[in-house]
Amino acid sequence: MMLQWTQPQWAWLWVPAVLSLVVFHLRTLSDFPPRQRLVSLLVRGIVLTLLIMAVCGPVVLRSTSQKMIVFAVDQSESIDEAARETADEYLKDAIEQAKEDDAEVRFLPFDSTPRQLQSNWTAFQEPPAETDSEPASVEVEEETPADVSAFDGVDPGEDEIPMPTPSPTDLEADEAKRMGTDLAAAIQTAVASIPPSRVPRIVLMSDGNQTNGDGIAAATDADVPVWTVPLPTRSEPEVQMAAVEAPTQVRQGEPFFVEVVVSSNRDTEGHVDLYRGDIQIGDVDAPAVKIKKGENRFRFQQTLLGQRQETFAARLRDCDDTLLDNNEAQAIVYASGKPRVLLIDSDPDETDSLRWALDEQSIDVDVRPPEGIPSDLSEIQGYECLILSNVPATSMSMRQMDLIGIYVQDLGGGLIMLGGDQAFGLGGYYRTQIEEILPVRSNFEKEREKPSLAMMLVIDKSGSMGGQKIELAKDAAQAAVELLGPKDAIGVIAFDGDSYTVSELRSTSDRGAISDAISTIEASGGTNMYPAMADAYEALLGATAKLKHVILMTDGVSSPGDFQGVAGDMSASRITLSTVALGQGSSEDLLEELAQIGGGRYYFCDDPQSVPQVFAKETVEASKSAINELPFVPQLVRPTSVLDGIELDLSPLLLGYVVTRPKPTAEFILASESGDPLLVWWRYGLGMSVAFTSDAKNRWAGEWMTWPDFGTFWAQIIRHAMRKDDNRGVFVEVERSGNQTRVVMDAGDDNGRFIDEAETRLTVIDPRLKNEKIAMRQTAPGRYEASVETLRRGAYHFDIATNRMDGTSQRSSRGIAVGYPDELRLLPRGDELLRQIASVSGGRYDAPASSITENDDRTARDPVPIWPWLLMAGLVLFIADVAFRRVEML
Amino acid sequence: MSLASPERLMWLWIALPIIVLYILKTRLRRRPVATLLFWEQIFEEKRQRSLWQNLRRWLSLLLQLVFVSLLVFALADPLWRWQADSGQEVILVVDNSASMQAVEPETGQTRLQLAVDRAASLARGLRQGDQMALVTAGTTVRVVVGMSDFAPAIEEAIHSIQPTDGPTQIGAAIEAARRLADKNDRRRIVVITDTILGVQNDIESAEDLSWETVGTSQTNLAITTFQVRRSSVDPVGYALLVEVRNFSDEPASTRLKLTLGDDLVDVVPIKLDADGVWQTTIDGTSREGGVLTASLDATDGLSVDNVARAVVPARPLVPVTLVTGADDVSFYLRTVLESIPLIKLTVVNDAEQSAENGLTIYSGAVPTELPSGPALFIAQDDGPPGTWKLGSEINTPIVAKQDKESSLLRHVQLQNVMLAGGRDIEVDESLGQATTLLETADTSRVLVSVERESGRILILSANLDDSDLPLRIAFPVMMTNAMNWFFRQTGDMNPALNTGLATTVPWDFDVASAVLMSPDGNVRNISVTRDHATISPIGKAGVYGLFSPESLPQTDSAPQPEQQPVKTPEEWKLAEDVPGELLAVNLCSAEESDLRVAQQPKEPISLVSRGGAPAWFYLVMLAIALVVGEWALFHRRVVA
Questions:
Q1: What residues in A contact B172, CB-CB < 8 Å?
Q2: pLDDT digits (tens, 9 = 90+) for B603-627
Q3: What's the CA gap between B548 and B573, in Å, rounded?
Q4: Which of A640, B12, B408, B418 has the highest CB neighbour count under 10 A?
Q5: Rounded to an integer, what distance in angstroms lies between the CA atom of residue A690 and that of residue A683?
Q6: pTM score, two decimals?
């Protein structure tokens, strides 16, 4: 028992109050006997003292063993129906026991954040999405692996949780919250919800698999015994690829282990396939392996020879399994070695001489056809330089162009474009991302002596073209207008069921008006191609231009008509016809036939995004002005150390090039005899891009290939353009734990000494291809570190740029693959964690519900306010006080 | 308005005896007098006053009844409306991070003491119906006391707050505080810290947040980075990165004293500009390693950042067995090997003997089977079957080409050196991945390294006794490189940790659990998973020990006799061969060491927002006034 005053500041009242009692007592006019008056004063004084004491807020601290038990109940995604039932049963018994022993109980459901504290247990709230929906949402992910997924952004603290839809509903937010388990936050909140007047006890019911927070630290700090009750983990048969573990960086030829970690909740059998890039390692028909309950590790010894970067992916198949989405994981391994270059050529057979020349110069070259243009960043990151040799823009998707942009701009890769009849303007690069990167433009001043061109664009404006399609078609038509020279003429016809002349055939000097007319096209109606074709034919028939061309684009099947006839007429009148089929539903065969009859080209665009490139390519090609096929000797415009040792004066003739225009800040190195760019480069972001408008194969460089300096010339240019990914002495470690990835770089110079005080910057490209730049901090001799938040599923790419004190600089690139969220991981029950939480906090592990109210020798101090008692005493005394007035006693 | 204890209205019955007392006629006093004549005369004159006499009695009764009803009403504890439904939930967030240990020059109090005083006064001001919780925000977020309406308990908890050496976690603390009280309109978070709102923690000012800054700006010198690692060049060397910062608008100078164990290593004078940073790497040598301590010779606001420690890992001696031919002494090789530090050389002439856990060097001898560990061969004959074959003798074995990138040939220039006895080494593919390091003019491979799983192999085909290679400076350098290459000892480190950071450290011992011993000898269990020990944030700087629990006497279970002095982790490690590592923990945080506080407009925070004291308090106050007033009236005979 201990008395405390909560408002002792009112005690002063006693002095004036008692003083005034005494004063009036002395100056009394009362005729009671003095002794009675004195007793009366005493009684009144006591009453007054009691009242003032009450005002001062006395509190008696009573020692109590009254318990308050907070049940923190895990409700995250890893808790399934069976576990919920276990929890409910336990709680039922525990509540009964508590009632018996008169202990107060509270309930705190939690997942990645603690929820509302409840006084009554209302059984489990049904999760908004049942387990059935999991595979469904994962399928969505697989279709768009790099996109934002519903499982992203599991961070309770982040307000701006990235969500797949612009306006996330509460349900979705709830779903996201369930994708995590934060034991630490649950313990903290539970501790805080117990008032100091109760003996606290926390019962933590969880499967012990925390995804964020440090439960042990929170339990250590809590100062409250945390009893832990393990809940069972998933009970449906489940096998899961937990991780592919491989070193981030290895030496060339050094053997290392790729460890595949498979988790299962029962003994089963299955196949574990390991893929290196796209190739499966080992026997395809290997027998099934035994998978034990718990964690299984399979080790595959590997070495990297020649490659710079390799993705190892492991897949599980033919297992007794419920969720199929978590059966794949991957890891990216990096090896230092010779520089590697990816050469994309529309005719790979013609690249031999360039490849041999580069091999001799110690540059590894991979040659692929345009279909092999990398479509993910990990793949392209394995190369220091990308060479596009005569590859049209139409063979690339928007995404591939974006990837190349990021590769050059943010990851410091090199891009070289070589000329040919499919390159630059002829490849339809006008106004593309690639043109943005290149140091030259593909629209150029058309020379006067070139033949004039009259072109009709015949565009389908039927209802099916609505939305993005018609807008892209209009953009494409406008770009075509911009690409033509002043002597050329263009007309636009749109058709649905009928034919409408949007813009008469007229000179492109009036570009503005034509453009305006094009923008008025709106999609509606049916599809009838014939009248429009006939109109186009008639319009061109009367034109005076030397070259006449029609581009016909449709996305549907036309009402019947004599299309072949018109095409034949066109051909007879030396009018060429190219056709563009947009999407699967269009009459592809017919359009292809028409292009054949009309002596033009046929294009199939699956993606309306590529329509502008097709139009640009067609326009440039039709005007036959972008190629200059007169033999010439390259002229040195700007001397550069890159071409040191190469005797350009002795170089043989080049037989042609693509006409382009250099960008103002580009470095214009070599020119043709007429002053057009031949070799131009510039720095773009962190990388470099080079335009060589002639080629490196038989068509134009037949004589060059016999030139002794041919190999050196290309090797030096490629070395200049490529990423200086010189990793001698640099060792980068990338480790991920939870949402954080730590990048640690150890840097030493050629003599093995640590490199200190270097300025290091880390560029991170996340799976959405957004980039972020972070300064790395030196933390030890030769060691630099940075931490990155890696919340999203997909591949993260890191580029580390080091500027040393001596002025030299170095770049290193690494990657990491982030798999599905940790909450979905099939982990064995975290018994160890739960046991430790119990042991550090002085609680018990897995105690039966009947012992939940078990006494320990702790007590709490319950404050009991005693002012009511003082008032009651005052009241009783007051009767005596009154009695002394009314009755003469003494 | 409702009543908390309406049953106490029963006490109104107490008015009954009072009324009864008033109805009772006051017994008149008997006094014998000579005549009643004058009495009657005066009685007639004062008749009109007797009405007042009556009234006085009733007024007196009324006052008594008012008094009784005031007290009884107070007893029933009426609740104001605000009390019933909108008491505040106040969460005090007290920063007890390292910077709060800074001593204020004027008062001699630490910032934490100021903060505690301030928090205590806020707790004292807690109103009825309000609840308060206490959270500390240094090193880790800790809920010290849960929601309570009893101010003394909170005050007591406030006074129990201890300083930590860790960084501030204000952001996380506010996040936790928001979780503790989920009703936004009733929540009030009061942060008492020495940092400025939003400056370091990206916290946006919000409705529910009140910020109170304690402390005044002070200058401070601090060690902000201190990390040591083994040199990658010198086997017994180490490199130390140290950064000292001046958190002041004035230049400063100081001295940095470095000691390794008890030995003084260096004293470095440092001059720092205003806001200056001094960073350097210092090289030293020590095979045994130990705790390297840096201390700044400075008396400033904060002392914890003037000392930093790091552990230099010990370099174990590597057992090397030199196997020589029966009649071959390999004089040169032996001399060179003896001169290399860290080598424990054993010379045998039995080709079948090999070093356990170490390197075996065969000079002129070839075993029948390759040893399982790493091996160096000075080969003059073919190797064991399936390993390598030597080609025929070369006329002029001059080295023409050397692998410049190999770490084995670092600082070594062997081009144009005659390698007597050099023959082409043809390594069998089954042995492993071979790399040619030295090549003669006729493309014979004379130095080849092989990577294989059970240990690397290096083969040099030369006759050291005839060749001039051993006489060159390149030879000992090459051998030293080879030792580094075999044991991959390049810059290993035992990183010094920072306070307040959760981290994992390698745990190479074959024990499934570990304990962390703090500098004052307390131990706590640490979880170990697959070669890594996970260490939760540490709140005090110093040298900790990460030991295997079996190796320590059972200190935690059996209470130790008090007279036995507590051994520090360092003493444990030095005195006995305890398996485990020392861990140095430092503050090393520029944010914490910067003691400058930007002036922020101060608005005094008080928790009086609505209402104030409960109704009974006012009722009792009224009753007190009444009881005193009535006393005065009675004695002045205004009331009877």
A1: 157
A2: 555 554 444 677 888 899 999 999 8
A3: 11
A4: B408
A5: 9
A6: 0.72
